[in-house]
Amino acid sequence: MSTFITLSTGQKMPTVGLGTWKSAPGQVKQAVLAALDCGYTHLDCAAAYGNEQEVGEALALRLGAGKTLRREEVFVTSKLWNTKHEPQDVEEACRSSLTHLGLAYLDLYLMHWPMAFQRGKELMPRREDGSIRYSDTHYRDTWVAMESLVDKGLVRAIGLSNFNARQTGDIVGMAKHRPVVNQVECHPYLSQTHLLSYCQSTAVCVTAYSPLGSGDRPWASARDPSVLQDPRLGAVAQRYQKTPAQILLRWQVQRGVACIPKSVTPSRIQQNLQVFDFCLSNDDMKLISSFNRNERFIIPTVERDGKKVWRDAE
Ligand code: A2P
After folding, report:
1. How many other CB atoms are there within 10 angstroms of residue 162's CB atom?
2. How far is the CA of 215 from the centre of ligand 1 (A)?
3. Which are the contacts of 131, defined by CB distance < 8 A and separation ≥ 6?
4. At which residues is there a site annotated Lowers pKa of active site Tyr (predicted)?
5. Measuring CA to CA, which of 45, 109, 131, 212 is 20 to 30 A from 56?
6. Whether the CB of 20 sits within 6 Å of ligand 1
């Protein structure tokens, strides 16, 4: 099983990368250093995570002449936030991520969500009643602006995040530069089978975020189901002499899905990359897939006219 996925541009994206969402400033630099030092060559970042500057500090210590890694050996992704969807805001947003990360180009730049918020500096612009202020900018217009980032050499490829199959098809149908990736929440409780087969049929790689079930999401409750602690998963892990996290990641790798587990714990960071020295049987792949319950942990908490604006990706 290869340790990378070849994207439609020909770029080789390492199948397992380090996720940085929820990695607090003060923790993320050490996490990135631990990852780079134990063999990770794929980092997943976003302007909205508020920690790109610190990720950049770690990159500066390891990338470049006389250091351990060359720029071209590391695959770095960032994402355009919802308040930057107006076409005239896109390049500046990308340049800001590049400055924070200390890079001349990104390997991949994703549209973080299909919906646009009112432009401005506030991450989550809200009305007095707490509801989100949307903008009518369509993701197709944002995409065209993202395409010019490829033409200018600021990014090697562009892609999507949190897009459902219909929205992905919308972009595929109009794109000059095709989306190479759609990054979505994905784990055995939300197996995304339909979206995955659609994306695979059109050469869009799926990357799983929250592949371990995102137990540290800020709104998690003790009553929520935990995929990592599912006893059926524990039983599989025991049989393979692996940890439950490694089984969750291996399941994704074997179905052709890239994943970006987040951790700030060096031993876990290391463990999460060690998923290429064993193989799950077809029966175990099916067993883990059967855990699906369409359970979405990362639900956009935003509403318009009392209704959720964004439908499930399935
Ligand atoms: P921590 O960062 O404290 O190590 P996800 O990638 O699905 O968002 O999950 C992230 C959560 O999973 C974090 O709470 C992270 O904790 C935890 N985690 C990461 N790797 C492992 C692992 N190998 N075993 C158990 N928990 C893990």
Report:
1. 21
2. 7
3. 302, 303, 304
4. 79
5. 212
6. no
- Determine the Cα–Cα distance for residues 41 and 31; give it in Å rounded to an integer: 13
Place of tokens 């400033």: 25
Supply the pTM of this predicted model. Answer: 0.95
| Residue of 38, 209, 210, 212 to test ligand 1 pocket, by largest number of atoms within 8 Å of CB | 212
The one-letter code for the residue type at 12 is: K
Ligand 1: atom nearest CA of 263 is 2
CA neighbor of 40 nearest in space, from 27, 58, 23: 58
With a 6 A CB cut-off, is 271 part of the ligand 1 pocket? Answer: yes
246 ligand 1 Cβ < 6 A? no
- Is 112 annotated in some ligand binding site? yes
**Closest Cα partner for 183 from 248, 250, 112?**
112
CA gap 248, 241 in Å, rounded: 13
Give the model's pLDDT for residue 130: 76
Give the residues across from 16 on adjacent strands. 259
Q: Is the C-beta atom of 272 inside 6 A of ligand 1?
A: yes
pLDDT the model gives residue 303: 52
Output the CA–CA distances (angstroms, integers) from residue 1 to 59, 148, 186, 275, 278, in the order listed: 28, 35, 20, 10, 9
Residue 95 neighbours by CB under 8 Å, 6+ apart: 154
Contact 58, 105 (CB under 8 A): no
Whose alpha carbon is nearest atom 17 of ligand 1?
A: 263
Tell me, yes or no, if 49 is annotated catalytic.
yes
